[in-house]
Amino acid sequence: METIAGAARMPPGESRTMDMAVKAALSKKRLRQTVKAMEELREEYRPRWKAIREYQLPFIGEFPEEGDADNPGKRKDTKIWNSAAWESCQVLAAGIMSGLTPQNRRWFRLSFSDRSLADDAEASRILDERMEILNDVLDKSNFYDAIHTAYLELPFGQTPLGVFPDRERGVYFIPYTIGSYMLATGADGEVEVFCQKRRLTARQLVEKFGEEVLPFPLRREARETAGMKASHAVYWLVQPNPNHEEKPGRMYLPYVSAYWLEESQEDEWLYVGGFHEWPVPVGRYLVTGSDTYGKGPGWFAEGDAKELQMLEKDKLALVELSAKPAMTADPETAKEGVNLTPGGLTIRAQGESSGVKPLFQVAANIQQVEYTIEKVENRIKRAYAADLFLMMDAQDRTMTAREVVERMQEKMQQLGPVVQRMQFEFLSKIIERVYNILDRAGVFPPVEDEETLANLAEREIRIEYISPLAQAQKMSGLVNIEQALEFVGQIAQFDPAVLDKVNYPEAADRYIDMVGAPAAIKRSDEEFQALQEAKQAKMEQQEQMQQAAAVAETAAPAAEAAKNISEATKDGNPALAQLLGVNTMGLPLGGGAGNG
């Protein structure tokens, strides 16, 4: 059974039963070397992260050397004079939230990578059912709160989100803030090592890991008052398990997870476990080359943000100098004192001419400074893409559906690469992780049909995104289909034969798939073919009935005429009988009897 980070303790004696390969992989010396290398890499980025925090986003991040952990209420916005960057960050987070993972609508669906299974109605129905369960679990968990917090971290370049099983809600999520974690990538450039250093009190250590795994001094401390005050550094590292095998036991899972105290000995662990999937997906805004850490809007707006804070300070100084200019006064007046309050009275000696006056004239052009500030604010908004997410609200008139599509495509031209990366290395790993957690826990209803069960087990399940931003990427394809069908319809007014150039069922399939409609509303090819054959048979039956009715309608006058003729000949009209060749006497007509 999968274990969550720090949710259980290593059973007594398990360390003695591990084979030598596992012990080698869990060498604390080797892990500490890994952590040291990650810390050295992180130090190259920390100055930039701290500058972004100081001048743009003062309420995000934890840097222990600044006393954040010891004093969480410490004011951190002392260098902020204009909050345009913070407001833009909130717009960015809300825009990505509503564009990629909106809570009020479905933003992904499950399908088979094998297109031949797309028409398997039963398998598609089961996938839809599982998708509804997965969405329901996400709604009831803290996913949407956690993902919004994670999006607020994107201006720093990356945002990790831990995904863990939970007995009550199915899953729960933990966002990690900048400065509190370290990353390392593999050969493919994806993040595959995560390390966090945090401080816990002795009582928190007992609550999380149990008393028996702690050194004796910490056990004693946990029982005393100091157990709620003094904190201890704890490392948590998760990485691929080099000894992963298809063997029972958490030591052989694909990813190994280890906790230890910074001051602990070589063979002392707080907890050792593992994960079936990568437990901490990391979304990165922009990655340059083989960089481990990403670059986000905060990097691009750093110069403008510093300029903006300086301009705001200068504007305030200019306003203050205009309202309270520096003054000069003669010695006698200064000795008596100068009253600078509105309506104040300053008494000067009689005949004194110098009096009190400004030391210099301030040529205050507040409007020019404000204009410059507005330009800098707009540059920051563009760096954060806030202007794109706010452009709908900035419209003074109601837009048509076509204009909305064009505006969304304009967003995608700038955010397309970011959306692709977030879907590929962040959201997909979250969905896969949650799906597998629920599957192992037996949350999904059992599948009775063996063939369908085999398809679900053997075929790769594809995650297809149907969020507003993902749909905007597909919108150009929808427009192409619409324009093609509209053009064919116009040409068909002059030459109906052109209609046969279009495969309408295929066009309908493509359109339904691209708009992200539920699989249940589309009939399979077999159902569609059977329906067409039934319609054709019904049409042929109706044609046969119509032909029979026409024959009957034509035959009725002829039968009536024959009846009338028969009755007329029976009335003794020999001329008519001879004309029609009817023998009323039973004799042959023509020569007559006795001629010879």
By secondary-structure content and strand pairing, the structural class works out as alpha+beta
Low-pLDDT runs of 5+ residues are 1-17, 586-596
Helix content class: 40-55%
What's the main sheet like? Answer: 5 strands, antiparallel
Backbone shape: flat
Number of helices: 20
How much of the sequence is in beta strands? 5-15%
Q: What gap, in angstroms, lies between the N and C termini?
A: 121 Å
Give the integer mean of the pLDDT values.
Answer: 80
Say what oligomer this is. Answer: single chain
Number of strands: 12
Strand order of the largest sheet: 4-5-6-7-8
**Radius of gyration over alpha carbons?**
41 Å
Can you walk me through this structure?
The protein is 49% helix and 12% strand. By secondary structure, the chain is an alpha+beta fold. The strands form 4 sheets. The protein has a 5-stranded antiparallel β-sheet with strand order 4-5-6-7-8. Strands 3-2-9 form a 3-stranded antiparallel β-sheet, covered by helices on one side. A hairpin with a 5-residue loop joins strand 4 (181-185) and strand 5 (191-201). The longest helix has 46 residues, at 525-570. The protein is flat, with a radius of gyration of 41 Å. The N and C termini lie far apart (121 Å).
List the helices and strands and how they pair.
Layout: H1 14-17, H2 20-25, H3 28-43, H4 46-55, H5 84-100, E1 108-112, H6 121-140, H7 143-152, E2 158-166, E3 170-175, E4 181-185, E5 191-201, H8 202-209, H9 216-223, E6 231-240, E7 255-261, E8 271-275, E9 282-284, H10 297-300, H11 302-323, E10 327-329, H12 331-336, E11 356-358, H13 366-383, H14 386-389, H15 401-440, H16 450-458, E12 461-465, H17 468-492, H18 504-515, H19 525-570, H20 574-580
Antiparallel strand pairs: 1-12, 2-3, 2-9, 4-5, 5-6, 6-7, 7-8, 10-11
Helix pairs in contact: 5-7, 8-9, 11-13, 15-17, 17-18
